[in-house]
Amino acid sequence: MARRPRLYLPDCPLHIIQRGNNRDACFRDDSDYKAYLYFMREAAAQYGVSIHAFVLMTNHVHILATPSTEKSVSRMMQSIGRRYVQYFNYTYSRTGTLWEGRYKSTLVDTDRYLLTVYRYIELNPVRAGMVEHAADYPWSSYPHNAAGVEIQMLTPHDCYVALGKTTEMRESAYRKLFQTDIPDMDIEAIRLAANKSWVLGSKKFIEQFEHRVGVAGKTAKHGGDRKSKEYRNQRH
Length: 236
What we know:
This is Transposase. This protein has about 240 residues and is an alpha+beta fold.
């Protein structure tokens, strides 16, 4: 079966996921997380990618970013992946692949889903039972977006900026978003879009994308998705 093409729209953010091979750990020590973030900061600057949110989990990574060109994200992820694998293999005296195939990415409808994806990403450690609150996890963008801790690589999306007139107002409004749970239907939509590399958006947004690009925002269904239960139960 042919690979589904990467979906791209100018100025449209992407939810990016990269997993460790066989779900094995790709971070073992604090220095590993720091190395990955260093490589990501350099690659994002080099290839023109604005990073809005991220979380580094034990065996996978989530990034919310807006590329400046169609190739920006692929070049960034190739650079991070290559440099980090070299670092990881050298550090732990291992050989071979670290990542599970290609990274996955999905376009995000800013009006409907963007701030929800911000929260979805930064709440990963909470859903995984690793911490009680997003603020307790050190390897995500939450401290920056919610409390002003400096993370140089981050660029606020316009939807985040619109939360308030000042930095303090935006951070306060952002923290309030975390006082309510993300609806189950939104979590399901985010997971399904990510696993299928679909467009994540309203029906109108998907139709506009398809008209503009000439590529299906979602693949056609054929008698239902036999893996849907599996996808619902996966932790991302």
